[in-house]
Amino acid sequence: MMRQRKSLLLAALTFFLGCSFLSPGGKAEEKTIQPVQNLTIFDGGGKRVGTVLGFNFESTGGLQGFVQGGDATVAMRIAGELVILYVRLDRFIGKEQGFTLDYTNATLRFESSNCAGTPYIPAPNVPPTPPLAPLHVLNGTRLYALGGPPRSIVLRSIEQNSSCSPVNPVESVQEQPLRFLIDLSTQFQPPFTMR
């Protein structure tokens, strides 16, 4: 009788153990889900760029198009000034409408004949009420702050794609002076990752 009881107990134990391994909800296949807080962007060297504030998606091709990017929006302070940037896998970018304007392929204008001194851009359309954060201008990897109110200048040279060209002097109205903040390539190197 004792032997039968041991055999029955052993069979029941074997059955329950076998069922627990075959069951889809069993411990062997249980997945854990953990919430993520404070996604952060890091550069190629592991240096922290900033905390992700959100994402900016751009669609191409209308309704039949595809979503491109998903640029991360990050914030940082540069020389004590709040800067909001947009990051892709391979670079920082500006936006047509945003806190950092894209002037990567645009022309910087100068009053000097050799692209020295204060750079200018055509005055951006700034809303009458101040934005929540200061506006900045990104030209390649060089980041600028707005350097005062727009004004008229005599244009003598232009810089495009890091190449300076003198021009015949011409009066240009409503030019926005810029103040150089930093060349981001001296601080951060792609590829950028999010963790």
Q: Can you tag this structure with a few keywords?
A:
single chain; 195 residues; mainly beta; 6-stranded antiparallel β-sheet; 1 helix; 13 strands; 46% strand
Could you explain how this protein is built, in words?
The chain has 195 residues and is mostly beta strands. It has one domain (40-194). It is built from one helix and 13 strands; from the N terminus they run H-E-E-E-E-E-E-E-E-E-E-E-E-E. Strands 6, 7, 8, 9, 10, 11 and 12 form a seven-stranded mixed β-sheet that branches. A six-stranded antiparallel β-sheet has the order 5-4-3-2-1-13, with no helix packed on it. The longest helix is centred in the N-terminal third of the chain and has 21 residues, at 2-22.
Summarize the structure.
With 195 residues, the chain is mainly β. It has one helix and 13 strands.
Low-pLDDT segments, ≥5 res = 8-13
- Give the percentage of residues in beta strands: over 45%
Largest sheet: 7 strands, mixed
The class by helix and strand makeup works out as mainly beta
| Distinct helical segment count | 1
Helix content: 10-25%
User: What is the typical, i.e. mean, pLDDT?
Assistant: 83
Shape: elongated
- Rg, please? 29 Å
Can you write the helix and strand succession as a string?
A: HEEEEEEEEEEEEE
Terminal-residue CA separation: 62 Å
Annotation, overall tally of beta strands: 13
What's the structural domain tally? 1
